[in-house]
TrEMBL record:
EC number: 7.1.2.2
Origin species: Geodia barretti (Barrett's horny sponge)
Family, per entry: Belongs to the ATPase alpha/beta chains family.
Domain of life assignment: Eukaryota
Keyword Nuclease belongs to the record: no
Catalytic activity, reaction form: ATP + H2O + 4 H(+)(in) = ADP + phosphate + 5 H(+)(out)
Subunit and interaction comment: F-type ATPases have 2 components, CF(1) - the catalytic core - and CF(0) - the membrane proton channel. CF(1) and CF(0) have multiple subunits.
Main location: membrane
Protein name as catalogued: ATP synthase subunit beta
Coiled coil stretches, renumbered: none
Amino acid sequence: MNLESDVVGAAILGDPTGVKEGDRVRATGQIIEVPVGDALVGRVVDPLGRPLDGKGPVATDRTMPVERTAPNVVVRKSVDTPVQTGIKAIDAMIPIGRGQRELIIGDRSTGKSAIAIDTIINQRETDLICIYVAIGQKQGKVSQVVGILEEYGAMDHTIVLGSTVLVFGQMNETPGVRARIGLTGLTMAEYFREEQNQDVLLFIDNIYRYILAGMEVSALLGRMPSAVGYQPTLSTEMGALQERITSTKSGSITSFQAIYVPADDYTDPGIVTTFGHLDAVVSLERALAAQALYPAVDPLASFARILEPRIVGEEHYRVARGVQQVLQRYRDLQDIIAILGIEELSDDDRQAVFRARKIQRFLTQPFFVAETFTNQPGKYVALRDTVRGFAEILDGQHDDLPEQAFYMVGTIEEAVEKAAEMQAIA
Ligand SMILES: Nc1ncnc2c1ncn2[C@@H]1O[C@H](COP(=O)(O)OP(=O)(O)OP(=O)(O)O)[C@@H](O)[C@H]1O
């Protein structure tokens, strides 16, 4: 990297042991290349594509440079097919189209990774290839992710890229490597999109660590920091990654990116820069997680660009807007309920409150990753069933069922069954 006209900075990607002042640096004229190809599917590799799973070398001769330009506007395709995550709250309320980017935003431990992992598991029967990129995750979390994906037979369509950082600030990957790992995953995804005409899901967990790694590299190179200490190249670096995530005439790359908001400050330049590139935002709330309403998605704080009748269809659109309205009404009434009690509400408002509480519970579902916590097998719910379930609640077909029947079930039929079981016990 040229810092001044006659000064060049170099970032170390490998083990820096033995590198000392006065050593000669030689320009090879090459940029980093990583292995690509079918042989990577089912493998766990490091940011340079070297195996981490002890299953021998990756059997491919093809490599591709990690730094490439984004497809130009002519070859891009407009978004018309939603991806089915199998998670009701997301498919119904915050759908994502093939070739789009969805941010999963939430405080620590609110379930960002859980959404990513269940979405991967739910693609077992589909034509989508999944690439999970762990940027700066603890070793324990990466092993846990791999273990769960293997247990549910999801490694057959998944590549995991692990970059690990040990706690207490010790790193076993240089910032140069962490700043590249997102690009490595993306390059592997581009191979499937461009050369195999496939659709790929790319999970970046967590994109904020990509920003931090870029910041460290910038500081090491002696560049003058910009706003709030971020690298002056922040928006170029973010654009270079995000613009390559798109659909083309050959196939698509859709991405889910987890992020946490530093000090809850939504005006932080790192967050603002990331937001600018996104088509949908899934907002996770600690208050919902605290009530075990998992996934802790707040549909009122989330949004999706494709939630319009032309793409998702009239019925889905009607239902999603209906759910938002009922939840909003419940939120508006909460102060009155707290002061006067629910009995003081008009019949209409009372009905809205009861339906909203059922909807809040129907937005939950058992996750595969959380089986050990919930003691319930994970559930995949098809989009059709999801939309129908919410429609029936909104239309008042289940006004007579207790709200607990809607909690942690898959389809609406399961809620009806659960209500019957509850009644039998009572
Ligand atoms: N769908 C779920 N069902 C039940 N429990 C869940 C669910 N999602 C998350 N949890 C609980 O929350 C914990 C944290 O989840 P997860 O690791 O996915 O959060 P995260 O936001 O990715 O965390 P981090 O900020 O550390 O990356 C889990 O260990 C589990 O106890």
